[in-house]
Amino acid sequence: MFISRKRIRFLKRRITFGGKEKLKKSLKWYLVGPIQWEEDFMSWREEIREFLEKCGHEALLPWGEIYHGKRGRAVFSEWAKTMSKDDFLGRVRKYMRRFVIKWDLKEVEAADGIIFFLPKDVATVGSYGEETLIYYLAYHKKLAKWKASHKKILVVTDIPVEELSYWMIGCSDRVFFGWKSFKDWFIRHFDNIKKGKEK
């Protein structure tokens, strides 16, 4: 008897509660936040990845930026010292498009939502771009099944509300002022382990 891969994935995600079978929906959350100018860009990602796994979900990390952008910092610095401005910009542009941007945007597209950490006094450009892309995929891309394309955009920040980017607010579904409020809300709405299903 032939069983398709789609059917196997469906069966793996079925769980039983009180004799009734229900579909446990595990979501993929892409973790967005500053990397280039941050020395410690992984601790919050590791913490939230563990939190998501405990809630029955999966974290997607920007591996392209982490492994290539950070490792390339010293290389980029050397290029900047030895090349003309035009040559340097061209070299970095080619490198980033090949090893970083292409990879990370695929992860954004594969995600069911993003968790965007926006700390105060840290410059970030790529994060806003990723938020904008997932907003476009969620609301404006004309897919055959529009409702199924919706992707949650959750922002966590310590920036005062009056100083927040209006563009970021416009793209977001919800903004949290601290990790505690985010976790409390997320557990109420998306804790598959505790509640057995997404509310």
How would you explain this protein's 3D organization?
This protein is an alpha/beta fold and 199 residues long. It has a domain at 14-60 and 110-191: Rossmann fold. 51% of the residues lie in helices and 16% in strands. The protein has nine helices and seven strands, in the order αβββαβαααβαβαβαα. It has a five-stranded parallel beta sheet with strand order 4-3-5-6-7, with helices on both faces. The protein has a two-stranded antiparallel ribbon with strand order 1-2. Mean pLDDT is 78; it is low at 1-23 and 143-148.
Largest sheet: number of strands, sense, barrel closure: 5 strands, parallel
Estimate percent helicity. 40-55%
Strand order of the largest sheet: 4-3-5-6-7
**How far is the first residue's CA from the last residue's CA?**
36 Å
Tell me the β content.
Answer: 15-25%
Low-confidence stretches: 1-23, 143-148
Strand tally: 7
What is the count of DSSP helices, taking H or I runs of 4+ residues?
9
Specify Rg, calculated over alpha carbons. 19 Å
Shape: globular
**What is the fold-level CATH name, i.e. the topology of one domain?**
Rossmann fold
Q: How would you classify the helix and strand content by structural class?
A: alpha/beta
In CATH, the architecture of one domain is: 3-Layer(aba) Sandwich
The CATH class of one domain is Alpha Beta
Summarize this structure briefly.
This protein is α/β, with parallel strands linked by helices and 199 residues long. It has helices spanning 5-12, 43-54, 63-69, 72-82, 85-110, 126-140, 166-171, 179-190, 192-195, and strands at 14-17, 20-23, 28-32, 58-60, 113-118, 152-157, 174-176.
